[in-house]
Amino acid sequence: MTALREHSRPDQLDAMARFGLTGDGRLGLAVPTLRALAREVGRDHELALALWDSGIPDAQILAGMLAEPARLTVEQMDHWVAGMRAWDVCDQACTHAFVKSPLAWEAIPRWAAREAEFEKRAGFALLAVAAVHQKQRPDADFLARLPLIEAAAGDERNFVKKAVNWALRQIGKRSPALREPALTVAGRLCERSEKSSRWIGSDARRELSRRP
User: Fold this and answer.
1) What is the largest CA-CA distance in the chain?
2) Which domains are seen in the chain, by residue range?
3) How many CA atoms lie within 13 A of 98 on its CB side?
4) Which CDD domains match (predicted)?
5) Which residues, including other chains, have CB under 8 Å from residue 68's CB and lie 6 or more apart?
6) What DSSP designation does 116 have?
């Protein structure tokens, strides 16, 4: 925590808040600074757990970079998502820790069904990240996750709908075999009554239609 406080940038907090980078106790550290600290420390699971429980968003982002994915438990992962209060904390944990855990795939539908905004976002952010990084996973697994996207597309909350959109786009870009099913889902969403569904569908269709 001492190193984090040494790199704090309180003058950046107002600007960060305009982009939704909020949370009690935020220190204003830039992500490259956190990455540099993570490289200095190396993987340290116990330290990661302690940093997470501090509740400080910057410390929680660093926690995701320090955690040992193979040592994460279902209980730890659920505890982390329950404590998320900002989208960057959510996305960084998914990118640096959760997606590398053998428990990641089953966490996706569990979190996607949650009501809390950032817990639900975590389900779809993790799905998006998995579509990019879990290269050995068969396309059929991602095809089977598309119903989660349709089920959540009517959620108007900004940080949920953006993650749902992100997941749909990343699945569609994963392979030619998934592009058409993703476009089909996007088309159905465009025909729905909810504003969020139409936005998700139209944005995903626009991006996926540009691909050869």
Assistant:
1) 52
2) 1-67 (no CATH), 86-212 (1.25.40)
3) 31
4) AlkD_like (cd06561)
5) 43, 44, 45, 48
6) S
